[in-house]
């Protein structure tokens, strides 16, 4: 019991941040599954979603701000896809990746320019930010809400992919890009839907994450983005349950490491975990094996 | 124009060597003369910053290109390797008497300094021998930095190089972050000074030093690329399975390319430490690697010349040419929108434009050659004449067609917005897909 | 064709702007000339907010006193700002850029690490530099051109350790940021002094770009510490306070001069987190200065934004104000705009500023033996004066 009360704060923090990583990781994993593109701009979009909330909340009440943030982030995600990725659909893969890096660079610098390099404080959502007591450990409400919300959203997403027509199309495209095109699937529509889902989840993730850690800087998207991406690779990139499980594992482990007074290594440990899993299973936890054929 | 190319004359090998040597000497002499004549308070002295940093970046970018562009290994560990090189140099170069003030909170473990030892051994500070000794020490340490980096790369390569494309990228990125953390760790404080700055080691003041060192290193890389090893690397890049079938030992060659690239990255890291005069692990993040990758692509994946040109352009833009955008003045007027940060926004936009409209980079996979230069100038008059001859006709045609086009533009605007945009952009053709695309296509087709 | 046009347009845009940018400028006729003062401050990155507040002081001073008399003639003072991005690598080029723009003296920077990193550039160019609030000893040690007008970390660390010990705190949790010479230095000097008194210390560091302080706050609680000492940047401060509130930290937070900012006080407003800091200047210390700068900030929306949206003063702003006048004194004493002459004149300059008297002593460090201890009022979100602290040598 004493052991539990000692470690509970870390586990709670881990579950909470893990859930937030999961929401970002899904965006990475879906885009990768379909376009084979590491969408480096995804983490920065998450940061921009946070900034939007900051600026909108100064003029609008929260119940309008938050839905508006979701809508605007989705629009931003689709715009990035249309402007920066779509023209390069047939270009070498490296070019799209660089385009993604360029967009990430642009979003960061735009945020830097808009905020003047000053950290912005996320608007306080009273219900999520209030302090609650869980078995003697005090924490924010958002810690408890996050895992529930993540599970609900992921179940909904999996149902969507499994039972709807567009879901079927998505599975087909991720299996074989060119053949599915020949079969009459509107590739661009599938990709747009993918970006819509990814951006939507990233926006929800940003609300939860920044309620928990209230400061937003232009670089705020970098680390969560990178960790979410690691989570996606860890779980086997392309697999949604894999990304979610990977995110929770990484979130919890990184907090336990901090609890073990190895704080210097909390970020590096994420990568150690990644490398170990890649050594044992080169395509991640739930990844499908690729066979090279000539 | 095609006909001109067909009849393009080739220069003899000897002439090329002479030309190259002359060009190198001319550039070095020019830099030397400029250095003597431009005081540090002149606004032109930024030129030397650009030359120094550009030369260092060139070396690092070329070695990254060796890996990404010539061997087809998508590795993102560059910043980590630069960090190792920088530290390996700095730790052994700090003079003994300065150690106490550098290692403020730790007991320094390395109780000697290589350049200092050699200075004393060859006649002491201030003498000609001593100065030579210091240079020798610095060069030995730079080689040492390269070797340490290569050694660590060898160990990292054992597991990492067995991974495929994106997995390789993320694993190497991970290793770079782990390296950074280890160097920041308090427990190694007596060697690395924890996360604090290392400084007071010998540095260079003339831009000739990085130019010459980078030039030599890049020359070695070029020789390697043109050797049988280089051909094996390219074979792996173009098709791993075919290369293996032809008897290329995949792992051995990948490891070789990885280690050699890291060796030169390590030297680049050591020079960066000298350029900055201080080192700590914080700036060597994945963002630094992304920046290098951007330069590789801007220059052209698979072109050494492109990497060099890209490095100098990138550094010049980010450090010098675009700085005025931050200063709040435009056409002599106050412009509020041009406050700090605007430079970077513009810069990012330029990069996106280059990637979108010029996705093969400045040089594509082409390289600089004297033949190319001569043929360019030889055919220039003919082309100019042709251009100006055709110009009036073209202008007339353009203005004749203009009204119609404008009308058409506005007529079709609504319909295009409402959906045709998709088709137009989706069909952007890039018929000259290069090798990377081809291999990807094949992967995807399975 | 499209590509070519796009590229051409981009190039034309860049180069035309470049050409225009270089061509601008020109002296006003009423002045004998212009003297340039370099402001070497971070405008972005971790230390961006602090750097901006420090630069505000300099800008306000320039607004109050835009001219200087040199050898009987009036010169216009122009500020040249360079953003060092709180990054040691960028600091070098930003410093080179300042030197190349022909400044007579450089002020700054907020954050010791960038000052140390750029120190050699100034040294090589013989450019006098004056640290405003960079408290790490290494900034000036062994560098003849670097001066500073604030106290040093060994002093500040001792002051803080004394304060903690005198108030019955026996076990301290120290938190610094990896690679940040300021926080690592201050934490180390604090720990030295605190241990010397017989206190116990738990020391941890957090990595760059970290925004999750849950684990650190939990660690401090788990170890049963009496005080949470975290002399880190303002960005991190806001997050730490937020976590401390969420987890009910239950111990006072102690910090150095960086935390003396309205942003920190604002974050602590409405919480029950106790925050105590040491600093250079107490608001209300000089009524005329306070009123003047507040009125100026109200008029200038950019200044107000850079100050974090309200007119509460940070100590670094007052220090920036003093630094500008010390620089003017040096230029006057030198009787020329040549950096070498200013450098020669600087060590002998004495100036009575709003933060006290500035006299340069050993290593070019200002002689200072007073630090102000302030506490945050959680109801009003303002700093309140607690004590004046000296150290007996």
Structural summary, described in words:
The complex is a heterotrimer of chains A (294), B (446) and C (393). The relative contact order of chain A is 0.20. Chain A has one domain (2-280): ABC transporter involved in vitamin B12 uptake, BtuC. Helices cover 74% and strands 4% of the residues of chain A. In chain A, a hairpin with a 2-residue loop joins strand 2 (131-134) and strand 3. With 294 residues, chain A is mostly helical. Chain A has helices spanning 2-35, 42-59, 62-85, 93-115, 126-129, 141-163, 165-175, 177-182, 187-212, 222-234, 240-259, 266-280; strands at residues 120-121, 131-134, 137-140, 215-216. Chain B is built from 18 helices and four strands. The longest helix of chain B is centred in the last third of the chain and has 57 residues, at 370-426. Chain B is globular, with a radius of gyration of 25 Å. Chain B has 446 residues and is mainly alpha-helical. Chain B folds into two domains: 42-313, ABC transporter involved in vitamin B12 uptake, BtuC; 370-445, no CATH class. Chain C has 393 residues and is of the alpha/beta class. Chain C folds into two domains: 33-151 and 286-360, Response regulator (Rossmann fold, 3-Layer(aba) Sandwich); 153-279 and 372-389, Response regulator (Rossmann fold, 3-Layer(aba) Sandwich), CATH 3.40.50. Chain C is globular. The termini of chain C are far apart. Mean pLDDT of chain C is 85; it is low at 17-27. Classes of the chains: A mainly alpha (294), B mainly alpha (446), C alpha/beta (393). Chains in contact: A-B, A-C, B-C. Chains A and B meet through helix 4, helix 10 and helix 12 of A and helix 8, helix 12, helix 14, helix 16 and helix 17 of B.
Which architecture of the largest domain in chain C would the CATH scheme give at its second level? 3-Layer(aba) Sandwich
> What's the overall geometry of chain B?
globular
Task: Give the strand tally of chain B.
Answer: 4
| Mean pLDDT across every amino acid position of chain B | 84
- Helix % of chain B is over 70%
Total helical elements of chain C: 13
What proportion strand of chain B?
Answer: under 5%
Which fold name corresponds to the CATH topology of the largest domain in chain B? ABC transporter involved in vitamin B12 uptake, BtuC
Question: Which shape of chain C, going by the Cα principal axes?
Answer: globular
Question: Whole-Å distance between the termini of chain B?
Answer: 41 Å
Q: How many discrete domains of chain C?
A: 2
Summed up, the helix count of chain B is 18
Strands ordered across the widest β-sheet of chain C: 8-7-9-10-11-14-15
CATH architecture of the largest domain in chain B: Orthogonal Bundle
CATH fold-level assignment of the largest domain in chain C: Rossmann fold
Which pair of chains has the greatest number of interface residues, and how are they split between the two chains?
Answer: A-B, 59 and 64 residues
Amino-to-carboxy terminus distance of chain C:
76 Å
User: Main beta sheet of chain B: strand number and arrangement?
Assistant: 2 strands, antiparallel
């Amino acid at each position: 019991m004493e052991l539990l009360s000692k470690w509970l704060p870390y586990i709670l923090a881990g579950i909470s941040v893990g859930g937030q990583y999961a929401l970002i990781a899904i965006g990475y994993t879906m885009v990768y599954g379909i376009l084979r593109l590491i969408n480096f701009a995804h983490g920065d979009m998450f940061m921009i979603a946070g900034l939007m909330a900051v600026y909108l909340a100064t003029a609008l009440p929260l119940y309008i701000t938050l839905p508006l943030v979701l809508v605007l982030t989705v629009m931003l995600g689709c715009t990035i896809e249309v402007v920066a990725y779509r023209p390069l659909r047939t270009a070498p893969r490296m070019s799209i990746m660089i385009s993604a890096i360029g967009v990430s660079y642009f979003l960061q610098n735009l945020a830097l320019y808009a905020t003047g390099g000053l950290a912005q404080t996320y608007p306080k959502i009273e219900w999520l930010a209030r302090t609650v007591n869980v078995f003697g450990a005090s924490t924010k409400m958002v810690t408890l809400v996050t895992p529930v919300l993540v599970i609900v959203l992921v179940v909904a997403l999996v149902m969507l992919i499994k039972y709807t027509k567009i879901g079927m199309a998505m599975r087909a495209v991720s299996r074989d890009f060119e053949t599915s095109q020949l079969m009459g699937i509107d590739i661009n529509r599938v990709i747009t839907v993918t970006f819509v889902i990814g951006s939507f989840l990233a926006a929800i993730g940003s609300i939860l994450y920044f309620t928990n850690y209230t400061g937003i800087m232009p670089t705020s998207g970098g680390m969560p983005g990178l960790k979410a991406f690691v989570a996606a690779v860890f779980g086997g990139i392309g697999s949604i349950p894999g990304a979610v499980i990977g995110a929770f594992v990484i979130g919890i482990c990184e907090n336990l490491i901090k609890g073990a007074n190895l704080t210097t290594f909390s970020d590096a440990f994420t990568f150690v975990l990644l490398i170990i899993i890649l050594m044992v299973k080169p395509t991640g936890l739930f990844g499908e094996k690729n066979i090279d054929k000539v | 124009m095609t006909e001109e190319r067909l009849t393009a004359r080739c220069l003899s090998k000897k002439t090329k060597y002479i030309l190259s040597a002359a060009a190198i000497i001319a550039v070095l002499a020019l830099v030397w003369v400029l250095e003597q004549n431009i005081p540090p308070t002149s606004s032109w002295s930024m030129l030397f910053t650009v030359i120094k940093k550009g030369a260092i970046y060139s070396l690092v970018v070329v070695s990254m290109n060796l890996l990404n562009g010539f061997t087809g290994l998508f590795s993102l560990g560059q910043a980590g390797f630069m960090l190792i090189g920088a530290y390996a140099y700095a730790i052994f170069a700090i003079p003994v008497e300065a150690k106490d003030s550098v290692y403020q909170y730790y007991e320094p473990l390395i109780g000697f300094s290589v350049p200092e030892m050699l200075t004393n051994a060859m006649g002491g500070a201030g003498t000609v021998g001593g100065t030579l000794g210091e240079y020798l020490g610095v060069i030995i340490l730079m080689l040492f930095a390269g070797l340490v980096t290569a050694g660590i790369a060898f160990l990292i390569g054992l597991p990492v190089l067995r991974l495929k494309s994106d997995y390789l990228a993320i694993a190497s990125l991970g290793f770079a972050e782990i390296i950074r953390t280890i160097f920041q760790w308090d427990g190694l404080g007596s060697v690395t000074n924890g996360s604090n700055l290392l400084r007071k080691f010998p540095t260079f003041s003339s831009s000739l030093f990085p130019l010459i060192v980078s030039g030599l290193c890049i020359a070695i890389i070029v020789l390697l690329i043109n050797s049988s090893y280089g051909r094996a690397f390219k074979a792996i890049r173009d098709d791993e399975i075919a290369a293996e079938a032809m008897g290329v030992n995949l792992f051995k060659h990948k490891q070789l390319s990885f280690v050699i690239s890291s060796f030169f990255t390590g030297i680049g890291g050591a020079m960066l430490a000298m350029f900055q005069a201080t080192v700590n692990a914080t700036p060597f993040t994945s963002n630094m690697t992304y920046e290098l990758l951007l330069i590789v692509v801007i220059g052209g994946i698979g072109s050494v010349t492109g990497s060099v040109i890209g490095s100098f352009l990138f550094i010049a833009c980010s450090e010098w040419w675009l700085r005025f955008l931050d200063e709040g003045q435009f056409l002599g007027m106050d412009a509020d929108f041009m406050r700090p940060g605007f430079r970077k926004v513009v810069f990012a936009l330029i990069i996106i434009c280059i990637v979108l409209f010029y996705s093969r980079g400045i040089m594509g996979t082409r390289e600089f050659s004297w033949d190319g230069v001569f043929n360019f100038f030889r055919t220039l008059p003919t082309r100019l004449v042709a251009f100006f001859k055709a110009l009036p006709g073209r202008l007339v045609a353009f203005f004749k067609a203009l009204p119609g086009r404008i009308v058409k533009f506005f007529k079709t605007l609504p319909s295009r917005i409402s959906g045709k945009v998709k088709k137009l952009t989706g069909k952007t053709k890039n018929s000259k897909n290069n090798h990377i695309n081809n291999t990807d296509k094949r992967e995807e087709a399975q | 064709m499209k590509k070519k046009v796009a590229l051409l347009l981009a190039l034309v845009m860049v180069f035309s702007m470049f050409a225009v940018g270089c061509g601008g400028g020109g002296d006003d006729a009423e002045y004998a000339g212009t003297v340039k003062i370099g402001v070497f401050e971070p405008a972005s990155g971790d230390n961006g907010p602090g750097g901006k507040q420090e630069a505000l002081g300099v800008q306000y001073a320039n607004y109050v006193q835009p001219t200087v008399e040199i050898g009987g003639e009036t010169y216009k003072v122009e500020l040249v700002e360079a953003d060092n991005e709180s990054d040691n690598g960028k600091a070098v080029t930003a410093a080179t850029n300042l030197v190349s723009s022909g400044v007579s003296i450089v002020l700054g920077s907020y954050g010791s690490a960038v000052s140390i990193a750029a120190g050699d550039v100034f040294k090589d160019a013989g450019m006098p530099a004056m640290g405003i609030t960079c408290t790490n000893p290494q900034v000036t040690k062994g560098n003849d051109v670097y001066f500073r007008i604030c106290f040093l970390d060994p002093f500040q660390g001792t002051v803080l350790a004394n304060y903690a010990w005198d108030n019955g705190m026996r076990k301290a949790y120290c938190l610094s940021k990896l690679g940040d010479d300021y926080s690592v230095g201050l934490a180390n000097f604090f720990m030295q002094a605190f241990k010397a008194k017989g206190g116990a210390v738990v020391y941890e560091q957090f990595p760059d770009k970290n925004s999750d302080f849950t684990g650190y706050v939990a660690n401090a609680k788990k170890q049963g510490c009496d005080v949470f000492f975290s002399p880190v940047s303002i960005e991190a401060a806001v997050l730490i306070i937020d976590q401390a509130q969420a987890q009910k930290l239950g111990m006072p937070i102690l910090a150095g001069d960086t935390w003396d900012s309205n942003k920190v006080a604002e974050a602590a407003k409405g919480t029950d987190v106790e925050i105590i800091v040491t600093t250079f200047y107490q608001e209300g210390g000089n009524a005329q200065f306070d009123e003047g700068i507040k009125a100026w900030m109200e008029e200038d929306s950019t200044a107000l934004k850079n100050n974090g949206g309200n007119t509460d003063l940070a100590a670094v702003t007052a220090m920036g104000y003093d630094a500008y006048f010390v620089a003017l004194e040096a230029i006057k004493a030198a009787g020329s705009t040549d950096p070498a002459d200013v450098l020669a004149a600087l060590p002998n300059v004495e100036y009575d500023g709003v933060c006290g008297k500035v006299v340069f002593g050993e290593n070019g460090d200002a002689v200072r033996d007073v630090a102000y201890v302030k506490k945050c009022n959680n109801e009003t979100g303002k700093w309140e004066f607690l004590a004046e602290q000296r150290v007996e040598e």
